[in-house]
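U., I forgot to send this yesterday:
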Amino acid sequence: MLALIKYVAKILALGVEQFKRIKAIGDMVPLAFDVMRLGSPVGWILLVIPGYWGFLWCGGPYSVALWITAGAIWARSLGCFYNDWIDRSLDAKVVRTKKRPLVAQPPSWTMLAIVTVFFITGVGVFSYFLPFSCVLISGLGLMGTLIYPWCKRFTYYPQILLGLIFNLAVWMPACITGQAFSPGLWVLYAYGVIWTVSYDTLYAFQDIEDDGPAGIHSLALKMGPKQGYKVLGLLMGVRFALLLVLLLWAGSSSFGGRPAEWLAYVVVLFMIFSQWSMWRAWDLSVPEKCANYFKYSIIEGAQLCLVLTMLGKVELKWYVWVLDLIS
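Result:
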């Protein structure tokens, strides 16, 4: 009888121990999700918007947009984890980033296992369902992501690298639907690179006082507020010049021709006027204002989505209904 009681007690002890291990893993999952910024949408929205531009320009089934969204969330989450892991010693020296989870403690083996499973699952799903050209483009993005934390240690141009890799999603819809890379996509990619360089430089101006002593390099640190104001204004002008080229390309080809195509020009003129008015009032020496300028970049990206909806090949039902109502 005594032996039976000891055996039952041993089984219960093992059960409690296993429960503690499972609970520890369960407690680690929310932390891993926090590190990967799955609850912070701003980053993946900025990453997915160029993919939507490509989708609205190329056309195709709505499943293309779903693939782009899933890929953006997956890539951005892994990129944040890797960047925070490599930069945890630098983040500890910057006021805005010193409270990030990996600054307090390095990732545990459990967290690394969760992130690895998340990575392998994404690679497997995307490789199986999407064309090989999509995998190649994703590989370029992965290489850029691996280089990025070191780029801001040794050069002042990490924003340029970020612009090049953040806008690779522009090409994905053409790859998924088997289309050639049209001149319009090249214009959209160039626009996106300049757009990303601009908003990430604004983002970097928030930390300009801490970045120098911490050893973090950026275009914001190299230029300073006065020169940065002029350069970002110039980049804004280049973006809108590219947008006008895109409108002329769509209007002079069989690509456009929708009844409300003229509304695209109205939206573009509104974009130019509103951003020019905002740029005149910019003060890059105030971190809080730079954060607001950065967040407005989402609105600019969404406005371009609206323009491409009016010009592109994707027939959105609400859009067709409004046109029928007007006519």
